[in-house]
Design brief:
2 domains, two-stranded antiparallel sheet
């Protein structure tokens, strides 16, 4: 479901971006219709996936890859462009930086790059984690939060 939720959010964002170029009433009507179609399609997929999951023995409505208890912490970029690859570890005290070479840190370079791209000043830590998990694999919430907190410590992010 996480992948489906993420894809639905992207599609709605694409439709909303049309208003950057044209926001007359006809276009608004068309976009509203398309959004309704996306919502119906996503609901149909959710129903089918839930039925298949129950058939396979799933007992919960929400798969473990999705965290639905959304926090309120929203990170914001303080810099533009890509970050230096070694951040935040290269700017942290040695004891804190050691975490990045330990077994608890599993984010790949691509995952770290995309994680920072999800920092848009709107998404919470949990929403960023869910989007990242939809793009790559189930990723631990505490790992995403620690990475973001460390980026805040080194000054490239801040809390909204």
């Amino acid at each position: 479901m996480n992948v489906l939720d993420h894809a639905e959010r992207i599609e709605k964002g694409v439709l909303q971006s049309i208003f950057t170029f044209n926001d007359n009433e006809i276009v608004k009507s068309i976009v509203t219709g398309l959004e309704g179609g996306h919502t119906q399609q996503a609901e149909s997929y959710r129903t089918v996936l839930a039925a298949l999951a129950r058939k396979k023995g799933a007992t919960t409505k929400t798969p473990s890859a999705v965290i639905t208890n959304i926090d309120s912490q929203v990170p914001v970029r303080t810099t533009r462009g890509p970050l230096a690859f070694g951040l935040p570890g290269s700017k942290l005290p040695k004891a804190e930086a050691a975490w990045y070479s330990g077994k608890d840190f599993t984010l790949t370079g691509a995952e770290r790059f995309e994680l920072v791209n999800f920092v848009d000043g709107k998404m919470t830590v949990t929403e960023i984690r869910n989007a990242l998990s939809a793009e790559f694999r189930p990723i631990r919430q505490r790992e995403v939060k620690r990475y973001l907190e460390d980026l805040i410590k080194v000054g490239v992010l801040k809390w909204k």
